[in-house]
Amino acid sequence: MNNKKSKYQQPIEIAEGIHWVGFYDDEYFLHCNPFLIIEGEEAVLIDGGSRNDFSTVMLKILQTGVNPNNIKKLIYHHYDPDLCGSIPDFEELIDNEELKILSHTDNNLFIKYYGTDLKSECIEKNDFQFQFLTGRKLKFIMTPYCHSSASFVTFDEKTGTLFSSDLFGSTAKEWDLFADLDESCHTCNNYNLSSPINCKLKKKECPISKILFFHQKIMTSKKALDFALDRIRKLPIKIIASQHGSLIRGSKDIEFIINVLKKEKKIGINQFFEDEQI
Fold first, then answer.
1. Is 278 contained in some domain?
2. Domain range spanning residue 121?
3. In this structure, what CATH number is given to the domain that contains residue 186?
4. 0.90 cut: is pTM over it?
5. Which of 72, 161, 211, 271 could disulfide-link 156, Cβ–Cβ 3.0 to 4.6 Å?
């Protein structure tokens, strides 16, 4: 086992009470990041993962020391199988009458097709927030068409952590949990996807170009992406915990990535039209 693979065999606490419970695969380009929030005697699982990854995710949840029966909510930012595929497994294992799926109404409509009997709650009927018994609050911000019609992100007020779902995600084989950028990344003009990689840090893959590529392919349009970014940049974010790729931390790196994405015009359907207002 290589050092990196060994490093990610355990859950990693990325902020107070927030644990990364995902997996590392050096043969795979798409890394998924489920997160567990433990607050007192309650726990919430965010984007729990695919059915194939259930055993890995569940093992890491147990390694945090939490009783799985303390998990009250399964939050899903949209209805894709890489998030929702393991719902029936969690339903079978977690013995908690309060366990519910928490998402938007339009997402819950499709999530039921994963074969679950769990009751669902709609974020818009809960004033777009969830509050733990301790008072710790999660706020839900709609980011429509990034990439589904009812996509949203979750902001933990206590730690400044934004669970951004597919936003700020990427695909990359050269992966680490955190995408800590070098100062040279902020001044580099060579991360354009059409240019050959000539990284000053001698990286085989440019993390910026990978983020751009992912958004070009996954997000529906520049207008939808700009709307989401404008809402997100108003938040006092300390860590962006995306569902794919690496996490981004620090105000300087976060603002830089937002600006890079705002400048990109070829997002989704805009790649086929000259009118960037689509």
1. no
2. 3-272
3. 3.60.15.10
4. yes
5. 161
* Residue 277, domain member (yes or no): no
Convert the pLDDT of each residue in 147-185 to its tens digit.
Answer: 999 999 999 999 999 999 999 999 877 788 998 888 878
For the chain, the helix, strand and coil percentages under 3-state DSSP, each to the nearest 5? 30, 20, 45
Q: Select from 165, 186, 179, 184 the least CA-distant residue to 123.
A: 165
| Alpha-carbon gap, residue 266 to 184, rounded angstroms | 25
Q: Is residue 237 a contact partner of residue 202, using CB atoms and an 8 Å limit?
A: no
Whether 123 is covered by a domain: the verdict is yes
* Residues linked to residue 137 through DSSP beta bridges, in sequence order: 131
Q: By C-alpha distance, which of 113, 79, 90 is closest to 21?
A: 90
Number of folded domains in the chain? 1
CB of 29 closer than 8 Å to CB of 173: yes
Which parts of the chain fold into alpha helices (H)? 3-7, 54-63, 81-84, 87-93, 105-111, 183-187, 207-218, 222-232, 251-263
Q: Is residue 88 part of a domain?
A: yes
Token reading at 56: 């890995």
